[in-house]
Amino acid sequence: MTTVNEKPQKISLKRIHYALMTNEQTETWGEVKTLTMPISMTLTPNFSEAHLDAGDRVVDQEAQLDSITIAGETADLPTEVLVDWYGHKKSAEGGIITNANDTPNAIAIGFESGSKLVWLLKAKLKPGEETNTTRKKGETSYKVYPFGGEALPLIDGVIKHTVDTRDTGVTATAETFFKTVAKPNETVETP
């Protein structure tokens, strides 16, 4: 019997990192930029599933990961991020021009959560619902910036790379892991 070492996972979301995909054919990324005030990040895997029924029972089942739905909120989305993520244009006055023809840029988006370091290697994001309300007497509220989208597979099928810094032999730190975006290398286990 083999015992697997279980460790409680501390939940925290420290930073969101992203880099524009500069070439989708060669799968390369530009400079990594960092947002320091994330609020939440939810990842929901999407599967294609099939069941084989025979002899009045299910005899086989297949499930394949297709993409990962991303939903998040930040305390701010600066102009540069709006241009990078959503494909908006900057105006001569320094504002944002939102056009019906804007298309989101492919980006890698990563985050630090507790001891986990995560890169979603190819994502396309869209802005969430924007709420503007009048402040009521005696109430204070904050404006948040929601976003959502999909993490898509690279040519070889890789969607996500996660490193747990508590694992034995892991030398990656947030500083090294998020310095650049690179496709992960598989380890070949010897029996």
Task: Describe this protein's structure.
This protein has 191 residues and is mostly beta strands. Helices cover 6% and strands 45% of the residues. Strands 1, 2, 3, 4, 5, 8, 9, 10 and 11 form a nine-stranded antiparallel β-sheet that branches. A two-stranded antiparallel ribbon has the order 6-7. It is globular. The model has no long low-confidence stretch (mean pLDDT 89).
Layout of helices and strands:
Elements: E1 13-23, E2 28-29, E3 33-35, E4 38-54, E5 57-74, H1 79-86, E6 89-90, E7 96-97, E8 107-113, E9 116-127, E10 145-151, E11 160-164, H2 174-177
Antiparallel strand pairs: 1-2, 1-3, 1-8, 4-5, 5-10, 6-7, 8-9, 9-10, 9-11
Q: State Rg.
A: 20 Å
Described by the principal axes of the CA atoms, the overall outline is: globular
Order of helices and strands: EEEEEHEEEEEEH
- Helix content estimate: under 10%
Contiguous helical run count: 2
β-strand percent reads over 45%
The main sheet comes to: 9 strands, antiparallel
Number of strands: 11
Distance between the termini: 17 Å
Short description:
The protein has 191 residues and is mainly beta. Helices cover 6% and strands 45% of the residues. It is globular.
Annotation keywords:
mainly beta; nine-stranded antiparallel beta sheet; globular; two-stranded antiparallel sheet; 45% strand; single chain; 191 residues; 6% helix
